[in-house]
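Blackboard transcription, Thursday session:
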Amino acid sequence: MTKSRDPSALPAGKEGIMERQFLKGNEAVAEAAILAGCRFFAGYPITPQNEIPEYMSRRMPAAGGVFLQGESETASVCMVYGAASVGTLAMTSSSGPGISLKAEGISTLAGACLPAVIVNVMRGGPGLGAIQAAQSDYLHATKALGHGGFRVIVLAPSTVQEAIDLTYKAFGLAVQYRNPVMVLMDGWIGSMMEPVTLPEAKEPVTFSYTGWGAKYFNPSGVGVNVVTSCLLEPEYQELLNIRAGEMYEEWKEKEVLAEEYLLEDAEYVIVAYGTAARAARTAIGELRGKGIRAGMIRPISLYPFPVEHLKRLDRSRVKFLLDTEMTLPVQMMDDIRLAVADAIPVHSCGRSGGVILTNEEIVEAVELAIAKEAR
Amino acid sequence: MEKIYERPKSLTDRGLAYCPGCLHGVATRLIAELLDEMDQRTNAVAVLAVGCGTLGMFHFNTDVVVSPHGRTPAVATGAKRAAPGKLVFSYQGDGDLAAIGMAEIMHAANRGENFTVIFINNSTYGMTGGQMAPTTLVGQKATTAPQGRNPAETGYPMKMCEILSQLEAPKYIARFALDCPANILKAKKGIRKAFGMQMAGKGFTFVELLSNCPTNWGMPALECMDWMRENTMKVFPLGVFRDGDE
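(Written on the board underneath:)
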C-alpha cells in the first residue's frame, strides 16, 4: 500500500493527461474506474485485491461517489445492483472465492440488463485455494459466472497500463450492452507497480430504464421503471434470452481483442494471457535466440475469445500451439482446440496454486513439444 | 358528489395477483395510499424481495427493483446511497428477511441505512407452497414440518423487531397486525411515520406487519384473522419497540 501519496490529489481533469505516474495495479484499476465515471463501489476484503476497496474508501468520497464495505461479497454485488438500478455506474471487486459468492448478483445484473463492472483479481483455486496470485478463473469467467446461461465480456490485462485502459473501456461496454463486464486480472498485475498514463476523466453518466422493462410489466404504470430479472412469463423470458444470444454473437464480431506477437514467421505459437503472456514474451526472445521461430497470440478479450486470430494461422507453417497458463490443468485448451478444429496440435504448459511460471519453463516446454512432434 | 374512496394512483390498474383473502393486498394498498398522500409516487423506489412480495412489480405504480432472494436490504442500500433523495422501501417476507437474508437485514440496520423496511410476517413460505419459515410458530404445520414445528429440531420463531432492537442505529422499529380495521389504521400510521422519518433523513426504519396465508395455512380468510389473534399475536406482540422521534 502506498502511504505517502494523497489519492484525492490524483489528476481528475485534462491537465493530468500524459503525466506519467507509478501505480500499483489494484490502485490503478480503482482510479481508472473513477476516471471512467464510476461513482459507486461496494466490496469485501479478500486477498489479493484489498488495495481496490482501500483506495476506493479514500478516493470515492473525494470524487463525490459512494464507497461501501459490504457485510459479504454477496451483499456487495447486490449493493452494486441497487446502485445500477437507479442509474449509477458501479463496480465491485474480489478474488475467486468471493466471485463465487457474487455469482448470484452477477447473474441478476445480466438478467435485469444492468451495466456494472466486476473485477476479479485471481488467486489459486478451487475452494479457498491459495491466496497467492494465479489464473484459475478462466472457465468460471468465460463460461458461466452464474446460473442461467448468460455471458459477459471478459477483459484480461497483461500490464498495469492495460489494466487501466481495459477497466476504463469496461464501463463503456457495460453501458453500451446493458450487461456486466468482467476485468479478469491475475494477482501479479494487481500487486505490481508500473509507470502508467491515466486517461481523461469522464463525466459520470446517469442512465434510465423507462421504456423497456416498464412497458412490459407495468403497461398501466405511468413513467415508472421496473428493474427485474424475474420474468414470470415464459415467452418474454425466451425473447430476452434470444436477444442476449444475438448480443453475444455481436460481441464476436465487434469486441474481440488480441495481440499478435512475432506471428509472421512463427512455427510455434504460444497462447497466453495476463502475466503468463509476459513470461511467454521473454521466452519467445530466448527461443528466437536459439533459432526457434516462436510467436504468440495473446487473448485480451477472453470472452469473446479470439477465434479468428487462431483460425487464420498458416496451418502449413505452424507446427503446434502451446496453451500457457498459470493454472493447472490449463483452462483455455478447449477454446483453442475448437478454434483450430484440431488441425494444429495443442500442447500445454503451466504452473498452478500461486507458483510462478518462469520463462525458462516455457522455453523447456516448447523444446519438449518440438521433440514430441518430431517423433 | 365528492369522491371519498378511490384506487390510489400509486397502484396500477391490474387486479391484485395475491390469493383471495391474503393480507398482502392490504399491505400493498396501505403503502400505495401513503405514497399518494405524501406525494411520493414519482419519487419512490420499491425494492421487492423474492416471494409473494415480488408480485408487487405488477402493482406498484412506482419505480420497482426486484432483488435476489434475501439481498433486499443490500439492494435498497445501493439504491438509496446512489439516489439519496428517493423514498426507498424494501418489501420483504419472513423467509427473505429472517432466513436467507439475515445478514443483509442485520447489517443494513446496523449501518443505519436511511430506508424503510416493510416486513410481512405470515409465518410461512407462501410462494413456494407453505414450507417452514424462521417465523413459523411452535407446533404450526408446514409442508417441511408435517408434524408441526418441533423446537428440539428447528428452534423457535425468530422475533425480528426484538432482535433488531439490540442494535443502536435503527431509528424506528414497530410491529403491527393487519387482522382488523383498527390495527390496519395503526399500521398505516406506523408506515407513515417510518416514511416521514426516512424523508427527514433520520435513518433506518422497520415496520413489521403480521399477515396471513389462507392458501398455505389451509383455512378461510376470516378464520385466519382469529388464528392470528389467538396464536401469531401471542408470540409476536404488537407495539413500537423504538421511536427515535421521541
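Lecturer's comment: Chain A touches chain B at residues 39-40, 42, 66, 68, 70-72, 74-76, 78-88, 90, 104-105, 108, 112, 217-230 (CB under 8 Å).
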